[in-house]
Amino acid sequence: MATAGTGCGWLTWRLASRLRSVFGGIAVEGRCVRRYSTESSDGDTMWDHVHGFTTLDGQYLEFEEDVMPLAEGEKLTVRYRPENPVRSATVMGPGGAWSPLFGQAFGILITGMFSLLGLLFLWLSLTQ
Fold first, then answer.
1. Which of 16, 72, 88, 128 has a CB 3.0–4.6 Å from the CB of 81, allowing a cystine?
2. How far apart are CA 62 and CA 33, in angstroms?
């Protein structure tokens, strides 16, 4: 229960950070600079993407974020908050991709349900 609650809290915090970048950050053009595959334990191929962008003050940065498959060199919009561009950069939003939102929302839903189920079982065991 504690693990699911911690995971849910972390995912919620990360989603809130991304949404702050989407709605209050600076939008610049970025590119998918690298795409590489990893194989999961059950044999499925998963694609990871590295995105690069230049901040308004001229600093070039790269970050990884899971999105639907992109080709190397493909343009997209990157949003970031100027106080911490490395930690706040996201491709989520208009002109970018919405898939990170769906992935995190699904993770929050699953970990939140496990946390609530654990609390329900704890409550039921204490009230009997």
1. 88
2. 8
Per DSSP, the residues of the chain read -HHHHHHHHHHHHHHHHHHHHHHHSEEEEEEEEEEEEEE-TTS-EEEEEEEEEE-TTS-EEEEE---S---TT-EEEEEE-TT-HHHH-B-BSTTSBSHHHHHHHHHHHHHHHHHHHHHHHHHHHH--
Say if CB 77 and CB 96 are below 8 A apart: yes
- pLDDT tens-digit profile of 101-113? 666 677 777 888 8
Give strand pairing partners of 53. 30, 61
Give the model confidence (pLDDT) of 38-69 as tens digits. Answer: 887 888 888 888 999 999 999 999 999 877 77
